[in-house]
Amino acid sequence: MNSLFLMALLSIVGLGIIYGLEALEPEKTEIDPDFVGEKQQVALGFGEVFVPNNWLVAPMGEGQHAVETLQLLIPIQLETKVVEVPVDLVPASRTTPSAYLLDALYIHRFASEPARYENGLVGRKLKDGEGYQNESVWYDPLRPQPFVAKCVEPVDESVEVPNCLETKLVTRRVAAMIKFPAQYLPQWKMFDAQMRAKLNLMTKPD
Known about the structure:
The chain has three helices and eleven strands, in the order αβββββαββββββα. The chain has an eight-stranded antiparallel β-sheet with strand order 4-5-11-10-9-8-7-6, sandwiched between helices. Strands 2-1-3 form a three-stranded mixed β-sheet, with no helix packed on it. The radius of gyration is 17 Å and the shape is globular. It starts with a helix and ends in a 5-residue tail after the last helix.
């Protein structure tokens, strides 16, 4: 298991604890998923993006415009609710887009078990070993730049914990590591279309 994915997995576990604590708190003010606040220009490695302030997990320090990793919560409208999706921005050189990994890596790690077909996605379990354990890949088989998510089997399927990971390029030099619960997979088309649009917003200064 590469170190970047291990870091992402550990952050998923941490987020699960946070989500559980938040469930005990009073209901929060409703979030407008279409609101885009004032943008900050941020450099990650040799790339740059323009990030809305309301998506930042923590405010950036005054004069801080260059970072190695930037944590965001991007609001997405699902059928019945608005959710804030944890997204880590990193230099593209530190990771690989999930759509590329589908053909370059995952397809060679598929277990012999039959594929599952749900909600327009194909689900294939990965072989255990070599850093993979209780993991499956869900992907759209029709598009040239498909939706591809690798998910760890949840301990409790009734609890929404971010146990799936997808990586997309924001620009040629900046990538987004997107973490979300497997419960969102039935709404993947809505989720994916909005996430692509939100990532595209960060390529423009206004």
